[in-house]
Amino acid sequence: MSAKNQIQPHLYAATSIISQQHVFNLAPSDAAFVEKVKMTVLDNLEQNKFKAADLAKRLYLTESQLSRRLNFMINISTGGFIRTVRINHAANLLLQKMSVEDVAFEVGYRSAANFCRSFKQIYGCSPSKFVKQKNNNLENVEKRKVFYILIMYICVMVIS
User: Fold this and answer.
1) Which residues contact 47 (CB under 8 A, 6 or more apart)?
2) What is the pLDDT of residues 25-46, one digit of tens each?
3) Is the pLDDT of residue 21 over 60?
4) Within 13 Å and on the Cβ side, how many CA atoms surround 77?
5) Overall number of domains in the chain
6) Alpha carbons 24 and 74: distance in angstroms, whole number
7) Pair 71, 33: CB distance under 8 Å
């Protein structure tokens, strides 16, 4: 198995834990800690040089303590966690119709190319393809809603 294939499952798992704490069945205190770490990263997104040492300092922990806790709780390195939070936030911004370059800058990347590379590592596709897929999914959901409303209307008409 290539190194890329070994890394991706952890990144997807971290993406889930960052957006949905219950995925790993964390104890409430652990979930609160992960949420605090996530919020600290989000508060410092615009700093492209925000690294594990900076995060640990803001949490009043050593880098080793922070690394051990994140690895134990959600099986991801501190740097991987920071990158995943940045990319998850970027995905939300992309869905708000921001350009890839603007999003990259907003989440602390100096280069759109580096941002696209990190995004693809976590989501498995480019930012533009991600937006296109999400928009297609939303259109399909809307079409299904209209279809079900139409079916319900016809059923009511037949019953009446």
Assistant:
1) 54, 108
2) 788 899 999 999 999 999 998 8
3) no
4) 8
5) 2
6) 7
7) no
